[in-house]
Amino acid sequence: MKRIFYFDNIKGLLILLVILTHTLGVCSKYYGFSRDWFKIFLFFIIPLFIFVTGFFARKSKKSPIKRALKMFIIFAIAQVLATLYYAFVLNIMSPFKSIITPRFTLWYLLTCAILYLSEYVFRKFKFKYVFIISLLFGLLSGFLSVITNVLSLQRTITLFVFFVLGYYASDIKLFEKIKKNKNIFLVLSIIITIWFLFNQDFFLFKDTYLKYNYFTYANPTECFLKRCLIYFFSFVFSGFILNIIPKKKTILANIGNKTLIIYLFHGAFLKTILHYELFINNEILGTTLTYLLTIIITLMIDLIIEFIKRKKEIIIDKLSRTSKEIIYSANKILNE
Q: How far apart are the C-alpha atoms of 274 and 268, rounded to whole Å?
């Protein structure tokens, strides 16, 4: 599929923000600073990632089962490797911890696999029905105690509505509607941001993660109302981001087409930094350095993997040409 710089720019921005939030989370544990203020990023980072996933799911020529299987295989391999690394190298978890509980950032891969399979159910229906059902299901699923985060199920259900929006985006001319109302998204984003700066403790981190059912709280009804508000904030901020992203190729686009490798490796790198306390004695400089190093290291890993792939292709091509030459020579000799 031909690359679309607009979406590469979106993914580039989002993966940088993912690394930023995880870096701030890790550094706050070491330096002891408050991390409440960056909860605002969680209102739109993952919802937008899921939205983009839904958009390209609609464009893909591969069947949902093939895409789901590929994503599940990546998840399974990463899950095993992460478990071994965390258990035997960092010694921060038991190697016998439930294998169906995604390690740190890996839940996203499992969620995508499930969402791809859901296409078989909803793609035959009109957008308005699927959107309403997915939104209600995301809100009401919190009242079902049987739906937990095992296999990332609760998170998948709550994020399903964003996948649906991305999947039907072209059908309902969503981008045109967002652009037409860009001033509304701008004003609402400013109002919400100002309100949030004065009410940073209104949402708990587990509210914004959208992975817990309401029975993990003292007041399930209050949590339900907060989730309604989170959905509203997510729609507003996502609309704002979609409006300001450039359509031409930028440095974000170069990063955006490497998101999978960056996503897979940055978590383990940050866990390693935290475990061995590889920080300098300056809160601001240390956090900035950790953030930049995480980006640089994961990009280097991507370059190494690409280099190995190219070398492998060259070797295979040479072997193929050599074998053809041998067969040709053999046939020539036999014919003579």
A: 10
Q: Provide the phi-psi class of 173: left if phi over 0, else alpha when psi is between -120 and 50, else beta.
A: left
Q: Which residue has the tokens 């339900």?
A: 224
102-134 pLDDT, tens per residue?
888 899 999 999 999 999 999 889 999 999 999
Contact present, 256 and 15 (Cβ < 8 Å) = yes
- Is residue 106 packed enough to be buried (19+ CB in 10 Å), middle (13-18) or exposed (0-12)? buried
The sign of the CA dihedral 226, 232, 237, 238 is positive
Q: How many domains does the chain have?
A: 1
How many other C-beta atoms lie within 10 A of the C-beta of residue 69? Answer: 15
181: alpha, beta or left, given left = phi > 0 and alpha = psi -120 to 50? alpha
How many alpha carbons lie under 13 Å from residue 111 in its C-beta half-sphere?
28
How confident is the model over 69-98, as pLDDT tens digits?
A: 999 999 999 999 999 999 999 988 887 777
Spatial distance between the Cα atoms of 174 and 83, rounded to a whole number of angstroms: 40
Whole domain around residue 302: which residue ranges? Answer: 5-335
Contact 109, 74 (CB under 8 A): yes
d(CA 74, CA 318): 29
- Spatial separation of the C-alpha atoms in residues 100 and 145, rounded to whole Å: 18
Judge whether residue 322 has pLDDT over 90. Answer: no
